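Friendly challenge for the regulars: who can give me the structure tokens for this chain first? No prize, just bragging rights.
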Amino acid sequence: MTDSRLEKLAKHLEKILEGQEIDISRALGEITVLVHSRDLLGVIEILKTHEDLGFDTLVDLCGVDYSEYSTETYAGYKRGDRRFAVVYHLLSVKHNYRLRVRVFAEDNEFPAIDSVMSIWPSANWFEREAFDLFGIIFNNHPDLRRILTDYGFIGNPFRKDFPLSGHVEMKYDPDQKRVIYQPVTIDPREITPYIIREEQYGREKV
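First reply, four minutes later:
Bragging rights claimed.
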């Protein structure tokens, strides 16, 4: 988005969302709006329906685990205070605007955020994915269940504290003639590529 269009969108957001507990930031040609979880649905509704904004399309929704994040404080949230967030990528077809909305879950042990399916039905599978991979609960979602992992899967594989090798592995047992789960037999290790370079690699040869 050009600087002039970015500035125009920022002014619209500041004026239309005046009085809301939000933080608007700009970086790399994009605008991010940080919203408090209790205000999410109200702000989202305004973003979608206001004629000067018209964010009618939810492009993407994803979970984020900030447990090892190391950037500056987000609008009143000290680093480490809030672990899980949901990020929404919105598109206004009418105005050709793009916007990122971020909301933090207030409880790190039981992260929960209101579902936006009533506003964008397309959020259905996105929210199920964030639930499956990060363990984020979406209040009032009509069918919140795993979508990528197996039915008997335990844990949330995109959390930073989930082991790379997982907890269990699946294999076919010829004696029982069925697929079974068993504890992981792979030793956890960090895989570092071994690189061999010539002594003069990257240098101009004389």
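The chain has one domain: 3-149. Strands lie at 22-27, 30-35, 57-65, 84-92, 97-104, 112-114, 137-139, 168-173, 178-183. Your move, everyone else.
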